[in-house]
Design goal:
alpha/beta, single chain, TIM Barrel, globular, 6-stranded parallel sheet
Length: 244
């Protein structure tokens, strides 16, 4: 997937971001508390989206809206989940299916043999269910501290691995910890990604900055009504996260 239209274009598209959807009390290895949303809360949030007329958007739909003049549905939202926890197939996927929603899962490819993370087979399960499975590096490192072949392996090498697992191209990337600089962006561009996502606050994607698309962190204390308020109101910098 490569940009096909050089004309600058901006679309309003809130991108909401989750990490774990799991009962925090039963986590064997505790995550940062704010990164774990209880399943019942996630269910309520997805129900609230549907009940209030929101439509989930795929990476392809966003790309087409930016570069090919495609129309997004009314009240669009791109739902994303970072890190590739096994929660993605055990908890998030069934809830998404219940409400007819689609999401983008940014996975860490070298964790496919680690307990608690998606296996290659589970990544294909998400893909086969109509979800977007995209890249989040090989091993979730701060890319600003890497250079040369190591940086290329974390970004381009991981992309190659994920494409081998899925059997088709991968076009989107999410920066670990939301950390990037000009060298990292250049490496992402060289690897052939069409777009990349940050943890910076904002609700718009633009062809002028396709490698710094903002997202809205949805943390543990958020509620369904709070999520609707965020999507319908102004986003403050306090609602961004550096967790990634």
């Amino acid at each position: 997937m490569a940009p096909a239209n050089p004309t600058p274009r901006t679309v309003r598209i809130p991108v909401i971001t989750y990490h774990r959807v799991h009962s925090y009390a039963t986590e064997l290895v505790k995550s940062l508390p704010d990164l774990t949303v209880e399943p019942s809360v996630f269910f309520a949030e997805m129900k609230a989206l549907v009940d209030n007329g929101y439509h989930s958007v795929t990476i392809r739909q966003l790309f087409d809206a930016l570069y090919r003049g495609g129309a997004l549905p009314s009240k669009p939202v791109l739902i994303s989940a970072d890190d590739g926890y096994v929660d993605d197939v055990r908890t998030i996927l069934p809830i998404l299916r219940r409400f007819g929603l689609r999401a983008t899962f940014f996975v860490i490819t070298a964790r496919d043999t680690q307990a608690g993370f998606l296996t290659a087979s589970q990544m294909r399960e998400l893909d086969g269910a109509g979800m977007d499975v995209e890249d989040h590096t090989m091993s979730h490192v701060d890319l600003r501290l890497r250079s040369g072949s190591v940086l290329a392996q974390q970004i381009g090498g991981s992309k190659t691995v994920l494409q081998g697992i899925l059997g088709h191209p991968v076009s989107a990337f999410a920066y670990p910890f939301g950390a990037f600089n000009t060298a990292v962006i250049a490496a992402v561009r060289r690897a052939g990604y069409a777009m990349a996502f940050t943890t910076q606050a904002g609700e718009s994607a633009s062809t002028a900055s396709p490698y710094t698309i903002p997202r809205i962190h949805i943390g543990r204390s958020e509620t369904a009504s709070g999520l609707l308020s965020i999507l319908g109101g102004n986003l403050s910098a306090a609602q961004s996260s550096s967790a990634g």
